[in-house]
Amino acid sequence: MTRPEIMENPPARKREVDEVVQRLREVLDKIRIVLPSLGSDPVGESYDPAVYLVELGRVNAGTARKLATVLEQAVREETDE
Questions:
Q1: Bond prior to 4 in cis (omega within 30° of 0)
Q2: pLDDT tens-digit profile of 8-41?
Q3: Residue 39 phi, psi (nearest 5)
Q4: pLDDT at residue 8, rounded to an integer
Q5: Rounded to whole angstroms, how far apart are CA atoms 40 and 12?
Q6: DSSP string of the chain?
Q7: Which whole-number Å values give the CA distances from 73 to 34, 52, 67, 78, in the listed order?
Q8: CA distance 54 to 21
Q9: CB under 8 Å to 53, separation ≥6 — which residues?
């Protein structure tokens, strides 16, 4: 499905958000980071047109620090290529 088809098709947009949430959860699990509130934001579905957002939620400072460390490492690796 192409990007324009997703944008014009609410069920496809919802599926896309659910897929990216699952992908993010799996990647974070591999590096032992848990975002307890990770999921799709159900409130956005009540808008017209629907707005599909990913809810990352609130985390403690230790989780935020670990996430920042992993992201900094990824940035360094990407800029070193």
A1: no
A2: 677 888 889 999 999 999 999 999 999 999 999 8
A3: 175, -175
A4: 63
A5: 14
A6: --HHHHHH-HHHHHHHHHHHHHHHHHHHHHTT---TT-EE-GGGGGSSS----EE-----HHHHHHHHHHHHHHHHHHHH-
A7: 18, 29, 10, 9
A8: 7
A9: 17, 40, 41, 44
Owner of token pair 């947009």: 13
**Both structure tokens of 61:** 């400072």
CA atoms of 70 and 8, how far apart (whole Å)? 35
Q: Of 23, 50, 26, 21, which Cα lies nearest the Cα of 38?
A: 21
Mean pLDDT score of the chain, rounded to an integer? 85
